[in-house]
Specification:
The longest helix is centred in the N-terminal third of the chain and has 53 residues. This protein has one domain. The protein has about 220 residues and is α+β, with helices and mostly antiparallel strands. The protein has 2 helices and 9 strands. The strands form 2 sheets. The protein has a 5-stranded antiparallel β-sheet, covered by helices on one side. The termini are far apart.
């Protein structure tokens, strides 16, 4: 009898050492579930962070592309002397919200004509957008008469405001300062600054775009 009890106790100790009790199994399953939840939550957070970062990169790439386009365009400014059709020289002029100048189009668009270019912002539904207009000089020195001659390029959408400033000396003034308008078409400003602002819920950033016109006065 004692021998049987000893054998039974030894088997029970061996079973306890070689396996898990029900409580230990439940604890193990619970811990495994918690780890899985934490890993899945971390994975979802990582995916959302990646998506936000990717979207931010794409939106900033739009800003960089817009700045590159405007820099190249303004670098093409071409002063034109007064003609019979114009009231005065055709150079850089503008106010706080827009700038206008004449360019010679690139070779692949050359058609023997000079073009007005105007950088400004305009309403786009509930938002505003940055726009580049182009039309032939001979078509109109002022407001465009034939709308078919007008070409409009949307440079950047979803903006709030465009601010243009001009650095240079006004007529009969020796000191150069930043000004909100430039009316001396015969003398280009030393610098042009384009500043774009975005709505409060827009995380895009527009570094001040400061351009030195590559033209001389007339």
């Amino acid at each position: 009898m004692a021998l049987n009890n000893s054998r039974h106790a030894r088997r029970r100790r061996q079973a306890t050492q070689s396996g898990l009790t029900l409580v230990e199994l439940l604890v193990s399953i619970t811990l495994t579930g918690l780890i899985a939840v934490l890993l899945f939550g971390g994975l979802r957070f990582g995916v959302r962070a990646w998506d936000r970062g990717s979207n931010q990169i794409d939106r900033m790439a739009e800003v960089n592309a817009a700045q590159s386009l405007l820099r190249r365009t303004l670098a093409q400014a071409f002063p034109v002397a007064a003609s019979a059709e114009s009231e005065g020289p055709l150079g850089i002029t503008g106010v706080e919200g827009q700038i206008r100048f004449v360019i010679v189009p690139p070779p692949h668009l050359a058609d023997g004509r000079l073009y007005w270019l105007r950088i400004h912002d305009e309403a786009d539904g509930e938002m505003r957008r940055l726009v580049l207009d182009r039309w032939p000089v001979e078509a109109s020195n002022g407001p465009l008469a034939d709308e078919r001659e007008l070409q409009v390029v949307s440079v950047l959408e979803g903006i709030e405001t465009l601010q243009v400033a001009y650095f240079g000396a006004a007529k009969n003034v020796e000191e150069s300062t930043w000004q909100q308008r430039w009316t001396d078409a015969a003398t280009p400003p030393d610098l042009v600054r384009l500043r774009v602002t975005f709505p409060d819920n827009d995380d895009r950033v527009w570094p001040d775009l400061v351009i030195r016109p590559m033209i001389d006065g007339l």
